[in-house]
Design a protein that fits this description.
Elements: E1 11-14, E2 31-34, E3 39-43, E4 49-54, E5 72-77, E6 83-91, E7 97-98, E8 154-159, E9 167-175, E10 179-187, E11 195-199, E12 202-207, E13 213-215, E14 224-226, E15 238-242, E16 251-255, E17 271-273, E18 275-276, E19 290-292, E20 298-301, E21 305-309, E22 315-317, E23 326-328, E24 346-352, E25 355-361, E26 376-380, E27 386-390, E28 393-398, E29 404-406, E30 428-432, E31 439-445, E32 453-457, E33 460-465, E34 472-474, H1 491-496, E35 500-502, E36 514-516, H2 519-525, H3 548-575
Parallel strand pairs: 1-2, 13-14, 22-23
Antiparallel strand pairs: 2-3, 3-4, 5-6, 6-7, 8-9, 9-10, 11-12, 12-13, 15-16, 16-18, 17-19, 19-20, 20-21, 21-22, 24-25, 25-26, 27-28, 28-29, 30-31, 31-32, 32-33, 33-34, 35-36
C-alpha cells in the first residue's frame, strides 16, 4: 500500500556496462540500476536523469557519523577512508572558513575581489597576538613584499582608518626602483603627522610636517634643531669620527658644544664653537674657536684670535678692526696664491660693473690669458685706463686705446711732457713692429764712446745728436753702403724745384711765414727725397731735405764747369 504523498515507481535494471538511462526511459521519480557498473540512477522532477549512488571502492564502504555539525568540513578517520567524521573547520554558507588551528600550503594563497583582509588578534599582548614566524627551527624570519612581473614599486602601509578613506598612513616602500621611501601620508581628509624615532622608550628624533628635524626636542624650530635638557656640563654635541689603522678610534673631531644659539638670562649673549681632538683642545685650536658676542662680530681663534668678521662684513686677519672687506696685518706679511699642480694658471681678480682687473701667471701653455707660457700678466678687460702711481700721484697710464701716457692723462696734439728712460750705462730701447717681423729702434745716451744721444736700428747706430752743439749727424760710412754710383741729379733738377713761403694749415694767416718746399712737387722731381705712402689719402708726405745737399753739390759742380768753360771762351775772344 502506497504511503501518503508517495507514488509507487518502477525499478529497471541493465547488465550492459556503462549503459545509462535517458530521460525518455524513466518517469519522474523512477529508478534504474546498472548491475554491472554498480550505479543507481533516478529521474528528478525537472526531468533530468541523476546518479543517486555508486558501489563502494576497493577500500571499503564510507560510513557517515550518526550526527554532524552544520557546515563542518568532512574528514576521514584513519587511512582506510571508511569513516567520515566532523572537522573543527567550518565552511559557512557565505564561504567563510573558520575553526582551523593551522594551515599548510604548498602553493600561492590568492585573494580575489576587493576589500579582502586577514583578520585575527593583532593586539599588543605578546601571548595572544597573531605573528609571522619561520617554520625552520632556529631560523631567521624575513617578511618579503615583492612586486609582480616587471613592476619595481612595492610598499607596506600602516593605516589609521579601517575604511582606508580618511586617515593617516605610514608607508615603507620602494618607488619605481629609484629610491627607498619612508613616508608619512594621508588619505582624503586625514591629518599629516610628524615622524618620530624612539630608543629606550623615549623620543630621540622627530621630523615635523614642515621638514624640520629635532634631536632632543619635539618642536624643532629650524631645519636641524639639537636640544638637551641638561642644566650643567656640555650642551648637545655633534661627533664626526673615523677609524685609523688601529682598532681603536683615535682620529676624530668632536664639536662639543656645537653652536649655542640661546643664552641664559643676564649673559652677554652670543655663541662659541669649540673643536677638540681626543677630548682635549689641540695646540692649534683653543676654547672659543669661533665666537660671536654682543659686539656682533665673529672671531676665529687658534692660540689667540686670528680672524675676525665685523658686523659690517669686513674680514680682518691679524687685525681686530678691519676697515675694508679684507684687511690683512702682519709684521712680515705675504699673500701667496700657488698652483697645486705647478702648471695651471694662478691669478688674483677684482670685479665691478666696469669689468675685471687681474694679475697673475699664465699656465704652461699660455691658454688662460693667451699671452704665452707662464707669462706674468696685468689684465684689464674693461674699456678703461690702467693707471700707475707713486706717492699717491699718477705717474703713468695705459689708456683704453693702448696709448702709453707718462705725466699726462690723455693724448693731445702737443704732448708738453717728456718720456724719460734711464737704465745705467745702457741705452733705452723702444721696440715696435707687426708680429714676428718686429723691428727694434734704440735711442739714448752713448756713454761708452762719444756721449752723444744716438739712434740705432736693430742694434746698429744710424744717427746721433751732439749734446754740446745739437748737430744731427746721420750715418754715412761706406762700410754700410752698396750699389754706390755717381749721382745723375744736378743743376737741371734744382732748376725744376719751386721754393715757397707759407703758413701751416693750423696757423693763423698773421703768423710768421715759413720757407721751404712742397713734398709732392719735390717728389715729382727728386723721388728719393720723399717717402712713398701706403695710403696717400690718410697719410702725410714728409721731405728729407738732406737729400737736396748732394744734389746742390752736383749742381754747383755742373755750374762751376760751365763757368770755367765760359771763362775760357771769354779769355779766347779777348785774346783775339
Amino acid at each position: 500500500m502506497a504511503q501518503t504523498n508517495f507514488t509507487p515507481i518502477q525499478l529497471y535494471y541493465s547488465t550492459t556496462g556503462a549503459a545509462a538511462p535517458t530521460a525518455g526511459n524513466l518517469a519522474n521519480g523512477e529508478l534504474a540500476i546498472n548491475i554491472t557498473d554498480g550505479k543507481l540512477f533516478y529521474k528528478d522532477n525537472l526531468g533530468a536523469v541523476q546518479v543517486l549512488a555508486t558501489k563502494a571502492g576497493a577500500s571499503g564502504d564510507v560510513v557517515g557519523p550518526a550526527s554532524s555539525t552544520d557546515n563542518a568540513l568532512v574528514r576521514f578517520d584513519t587511512t582506510t577512508g571508511k569513516l567520515v567524521q566532523n572537522s573543527v573547520g567550518i565552511l559557512s554558507d557565505a564561504g567563510a572558513l573558520s575553526g582551523l588551528t593551522s594551515v599548510t600550503l604548498s602553493a600561492n594563497l590568492n585573494f580575489t575581489g576587493t576589500g579582502n583582509r586577514i583578520t585575527g588578534d593583532f593586539s599588543s599582548t605578546p601571548t595572544s597576538r597573531v605573528a609571522f614566524q619561520t617554520s625552520t627551527t632556529n631560523g631567521n624570519t624575513n617578511l618579503e613584499v615583492i612586486p609582480n612581473g616587471t613592476s619595481t614599486t612595492v610598499a607596506i602601509n600602516l593605516e589609521s582608518d579601517p575604511a582606508l578613506t580618511n586617515g593617516t598612513f605610514l608607508q615603507l616602500g620602494l618607488n619605481g626602483g629609484t629610491d627607498a621611501r619612508f613616508t608619512s601620508a594621508i588619505r582624503g581628509t586625514g591629518t599629516y603627522l610628524p615622524m618620530t624615532f624612539y630608543t629606550g622608550n623615549s623620543e630621540r628624533l622627530r621630523i615635523d610636517t614642515s621638514g624640520n628635524v629635532g634631536i632632543g626636542t619635539s618642536s624643532p624650530t629650524g631645519k636641524l634643531d639639537l636640544f638637551t635638557s641638561a642644566t650643567a656640563g656640555p650642551i648637545s654635541s655633534l661627533t664626526f669620527s673615523a677609524n685609523n689603522i688601529a682598532t681603536t678610534k683615535t682620529d676624530y673631531v668632536q664639536l662639543s658644544p656645537t653652536i649655542e644659539l640661546n643664552s641664559a638670562g643676564g649673559e652677554a649673549g652670543g655663541y662659541t664653537l669649540k673643536v677638540k681632538q681626543q677630548g682635549a683642545y689641540k695646540d692649534s685650536i683653543v676654547a672659543g674657536g669661533i665666537t660671536n658676542n654682543a659686539s656682533n662680530y665673529l672671531a676665529f681663534s687658534t692660540t689667540s684670535e686670528a680672524v675676525r668678521i665685523t658686523s659690517a662684513g669686513n674680514v680682518g686677519i691679524g687685525t681686530l678692526s678691519p676697515g675694508v672687506r679684507l684687511d690683512v696685518a702682519a709684521a712680515l706679511g705675504a699673500v701667496n696664491v700657488t698652483s697645486s699642480t705647478g702648471t695651471n694658471y694662478v691669478k688674483v681678480q677684482v670685479n665691478n660693473t666696469g669689468g675685471s682687473f687681474q694679475f697673475g701667471i699664465d699656465n704652461s701653455t699660455g691658454s688662460n690669458f693667451g699671452l704665452g707660457a707662464y707669462s706674468r700678466v696685468l689684465w684689464n678687460d674693461g674699456a678703461y685706463s690702467t693707471v700707475f702711481t707713486t706717492n699717491a700721484t699718477e705717474r703713468m697710464r695705459i689708456d683704453s686705446s693702448g696709448n702709453l701716457l707718462v705725466g699726462q692723462t690723455s693724448t693731445t696734439a702737443s704732448l708738453g711732457k717728456s718720456v724719460q728712460i734711464t737704465n745705467g750705462s745702457s741705452l733705452g730701447q723702444y721696440a715696435a713692429g707687426p708680429g714676428s717681423s718686429a723691428q727694434t729702434y734704440t735711442f739714448g745716451r752713448d756713454n761708452v764712446s762719444t756721449g752723444n744721444f744716438v739712434f740705432a736700428y736693430n742694434g746698429a747706430v744710424i744717427s746721433s745728436i751732439s749734446p754740446s752743439t745739437g748737430i744731427y749727424t746721420p750715418l754715412s760710412d761706406i762700410r754700410v753702403k752698396k750699389n754706390v754710383m755717381p749721382l745723375q741729379y744736378g743743376l737741371n733738377e734744382i732748376l725744376q724745384l719751386s721754393p715757397v713761403i707759407y703758413n701751416m694749415a693750423s696757423e693763423k694767416d698773421s703768423d710768421k711765414k715759413h720757407i721751404g718746399l712742397i713734398a709732392q712737387q719735390v717728389k715729382s722731381v727728386l723721388d728719393e727725397a720723399v717717402d712713398d705712402l701706403i695710403d696717400p689719402e690718410k697719410q702725410m708726405y714728409g721731405l728729407d731735405k738732406s737729400v737736396l745737399v748732394p744734389v746742390l753739390v752736383k749742381a754747383m759742380q755742373e755750374q762751376q764747369a760751365l763757368i770755367q768753360t765760359l771763362t775760357a771762351r771769354v779769355a779766347a775772344l779777348e785774346s783775339n
